[in-house]
Every structure is written in C-alpha cells, then in structure tokens.
Amino acid sequence: MRYPAFSFTLPQSFIIQNRIALFVVLRTYDNYIPAHMMLQRLEDEHIRAYLQDEHTVTIYPIFTNAIGGIKLMVHQEQLPRAQDLVDGFESEYQKNS
C-alpha cells in the first residue's frame, strides 16, 4: 500500500508571530540554592529566565564540571538589563556580607 505524499507548510504569519525565543547563559552555579535565589530576583523584575541542568547537577554533583554547572538562562533581548540587575544584586550581597 502506498501512502500519498504529504506536504505541510506553516503560514508566514504564524512563523513571524511564534518565532523562537533565544536564551543565553547569564551565570553558572554549582549549587541550586543561589541559582534559585537569582532566578527569583530576576523573575521579580519581569525578566524571562530559567535554570538549565539544575536537576542533573543536583542529583549527580560529580557532573557539575562536565556539563558546566547550573546555567541561568535569560532571554537575549533582556540580557543587558538582566546583567545590570545581577551585578547590582551581587555587589549588594558583597557589601552586606
């Protein structure tokens, strides 16, 4: 039995409206606690961010160096603002400790 050829293309308007969001690494952590603290501070400022490889590093800490730790990923369009916020948070922490 032969199946008919199938072709499917998305309308151009769908592709433009639903373009892929690109995220870049802002910081890396070897522990989930400071990673989550920074993620929460960024989300409080309405920065789109997420943690990558969090579960792997938490369950198998020996893989931390192999995979580069827990990565704080930020949307590329919000990277400059996120960088400024993280620098401010870290300098505030250094000043208070």
The number of distinct β-strands equals 3
Residue share in helix? 40-55%
Structural class comes to alpha+beta
The description of the largest β-sheet is: 3 strands, antiparallel
The number of distinct helices, counting runs of at least 4 residues, comes to 5
Instruction: Please state the CA-atom Rg, rounded to the nearest Å.
Output: 19 Å
Strands across the major sheet, in which order? 1-3-2
Distance between the termini: 73 Å
Unreliable stretches covering 5 or more consecutive residues: 10-16
% residues in beta strands = 15-25%
Number of domains: 1
What is the overall shape? Answer: globular
Order of helices and strands: HEHEHHEH
Protein name: DUF2007 domain-containing protein
InterPro entries: N-reg_PII-like_a/b
Could you characterize what this model shows?
This is DUF2007 domain-containing protein. InterPro entries: N-reg_PII-like_a/b (IPR011322). The protein has helices spanning 12-17, 32-44, 54-59, 64-67, 79-96, and strands spanning 23-29, 49-52, 70-75. By secondary structure, the chain is α+β, with helices and mostly antiparallel strands. The chain has a three-stranded antiparallel β-sheet. The longest helix has 18 residues, at 79-96. The relative contact order is 0.19.
Quick recap of the structure?
The protein has 97 residues and is an alpha+beta fold. It has helices at residues 12-17, 32-44, 54-59, 64-67, 79-96, and strands at residues 23-29, 49-52, 70-75.
SSE inventory with pairings:
Layout: H1 12-17, E1 23-29, H2 32-44, E2 49-52, H3 54-59, H4 64-67, E3 70-75, H5 79-96
Antiparallel strand pairs: 1-3, 2-3
